[in-house]
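To the wet lab folks,

You asked to see what we're planning to order before we commit. Fair enough. Below is the target structure as tokens, and below that is the sequence we designed to fit it. If anything looks off to you, flag it before the synthesis order goes out.
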């Protein structure tokens, strides 16, 4: 039986590339998305062309009941969950002085509480199977901080604490929990930056370029694989050397 990976926010960007990379490795894919649109249809077609089973499942990760449903339906459709990738994320960037209460709450609710909601619903299945991989998408700014991102940086730093704590709780059940901390990756999230800002950012990265979704997906593939079976509770930086 093929392994099954459940990826949140998988219609676009990094999540989409993780789904495609794992599909090419033969995983069946449960692809969560929040809103029905062209992007999810396109990604689903691309995944189906990889000759694997693909199940697209709607749900908002910030809503606990939605996460219960996402996990239940994935088990019904694909039989098991071997890998959970908590990828769904949003930004509401602004300086703290201007930040509205909901700018803070919304980002925490999707990025951090969403990671809890999904993990809490998946973990009983992994405990029973005595096997599992949970891979959380944090960010370089969860480690370094960033002006204009108190909400986002707090959510991503929270994911790191969550990852390390859970890794300690479930290691004895052969469930490995790791995070990746991408730097500046070319996706919709960074598309909003002006070209000159992007050039300035690239200048300060030791590898002198922004990252690609493939750069992130390849590390996630490794963390999902047998090759990483003695790695847990770690934060792997994928940032061209921004943080050393
Ligand atoms: N792009 C970067 O430079 C960068 C850097 C570090 C970390 N990240 C993280 O990588 C992850 C993917 O981001 P991306 O760059 O691919 O951007 P993206 O906007 O393309 O992807 C985010 C996805 O999450 C989905 N999503 C948002 N809220 C959701 C919700 N409540 N429920 C379900 N899905 C929801 C969106 O629909 C979208 O498909 C995010 O967690 C982001 O914080 C991105």
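Sequence we intend to order:
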């Amino acid at each position: 039986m093929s392994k099954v990976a459940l990826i949140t926010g998988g219609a676009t960007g990094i999540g989409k590339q993780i789904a495609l990379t794992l599909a090419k490795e033969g995983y069946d894919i449960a692809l969560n998305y929040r809103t029905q649109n062209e992007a999810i249809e396109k990604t689903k077609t691309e995944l189906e062309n990889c000759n694997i089973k693909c199940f697209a499942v709607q749900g908002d990760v910030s809503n606990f009941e939605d996460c219960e449903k996402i996990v239940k339906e994935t088990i019904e459709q694909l039989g098991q969950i071997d890998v959970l990738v908590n990828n769904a994320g949003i930004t509401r960037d602004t300086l703290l002085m201007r930040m509205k209460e909901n700018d803070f709450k919304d980002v925490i609710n999707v990025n951090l509480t969403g990671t809890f909601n999904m993990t809490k619903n998946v973990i009983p299945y992994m405990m029973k199977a005595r096997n599992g991989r949970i891979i959380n998408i944090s960010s370089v700014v969860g480690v370094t901080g960033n002006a204009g991102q108190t909400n986002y940086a707090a959510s991503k730093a929270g994911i790191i604490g969550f990852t390390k704590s859970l890794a300690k709780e479930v290691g004895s059940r052969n469930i490995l929990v790791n995070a990746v901390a991408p730097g500046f990756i070319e996706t919709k999230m960074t598309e909003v930056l002006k070209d000159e800002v992007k050039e300035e950012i690239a200048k300060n990265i030791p590898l002198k370029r922004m990252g690609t979704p493939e750069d992130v997906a390849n590390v996630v593939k490794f963390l999902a694989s047998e090759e990483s079976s003695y790695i847990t509770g770690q934060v792997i930086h994928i940032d061209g050397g921004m943080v050393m």
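Structural context that might help your review: Residues 8-9, 11-15, 32, 34, 60-62, 87-90, 110, 114, 137, 139, 182, 184-185, 187-190 surround nicotinamide-adenine-dinucleotide (CB under 6 Å). DSSP finds nine helices and seven strands in the chain.

Thanks,
Computational group
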